[in-house]
Amino acid sequence: xxxxxxxxxxxxxxxxxxxxxxxxxxxxxxxxxxxxxxxxxxxxxxxxxxxxxxxxxxxxxxxxxxxxxxxxxxxxxxxxxxxxxxxxxxxxxxxxxxxxxxxxxxxxxxxxxxxxxxxxxxxxxxxxxxxxxxxxxxxxxxxxxxxxxxxxxxxxxxxxxxxxxxxxxxxxxxxxxxxxxxxxxxxxxxxxxxxxxxxxxxxxxxxxxxxxxxxxxxxxxxxxxxxxxxxxxxxxxxxxxxxxxxxxxxxxxxxxxxxxxxxxxxxxxxxxxxxxxxxxxxxxxxxxxxxxxxxxxxxxxxxxxxxxxxxxxxxxxxxxxxxxxxxxxxxxxxxxxxxxxxxxxxxx
Length: 348
Fold this sequence. Notes:
Layout: H1 9-25, H2 31-42, H3 48-54, H4 61-98, H5 117-131, E1 135-136, E2 142-144, H6 145-148, E3 168-170, E4 179-181, H7 186-195, E5 200-209, E6 221-231, H8 236-251, E7 257-264, E8 267-278, E9 286-297, H9 299-304, E10 313-320, H10 322-329, H11 342-345
Parallel strand pairs: 1-5
Antiparallel strand pairs: 2-4, 3-4, 5-6, 6-10, 7-8, 8-9, 9-10
Helix pairs in contact: 1-4, 2-4, 3-4, 5-10
């Protein structure tokens, strides 16, 4: 029913009455029908009720008030009808979702996952150093030459800058410069010192990358945990105490340790820490195994990040995570850690 031009109050009353019957009889059993009803009667541009309000001025003045009351009642009826229908539709949908089909078979829970042995080992190492007062620091895995090499006292002709050892994203120029995948987590220490002031007591766990052949004992990526302490009066004795405490906590109180002199560009003096690994079938009953490198922070490194090397001293250490994990779980091939073989992972 489309309203005709209002010629009198009587014609308006007839239109309102016919429209009221149509509204009450309208089917609103779906969301599509409810939306069609809204557009037909209450639409802002061409809704039938809306258009009647636009033409109220055609009604004689003496009956205009009554006509307005009738139209308001009609609009209210349409709005109530629409709201009730949509409320009922939402209730019906909610009941449908809540219904449970008791004839369906039950769902078996997924088997519980497990933590990767590398993750377990890394978390254990981090927790030990946290108990010793270290805080965790993180940095980007894509580094520039200054943070990865120059600030750490690597000379321009150092072999580590060669493409045979480092995975470059942008090649270096004449031994310096370039963008690379970090070869150690020491750049995190540089960033921390460059951004703050001593004292520092932090560890930097994370992935590092080397351009190495993949064999049973080497891989192109591995994990490191590096530590740094910088303060007034720090000595080599402090370093040895922390590392002995870590080793006994991680490997057990009966672990045998030894320090060996070594060389690293960023520490002076430098030392490596070995542990005695018993092997029943070995002719010597076992062998010494290097687990980390360490030393006193070279003054050139402190000066590179703006720290007075005459006032402050510090020590640093770095260890891989894969080797301790392999020792802990009797794994003899590093490649197994990265193959994601379920038969291997479900053992942990």
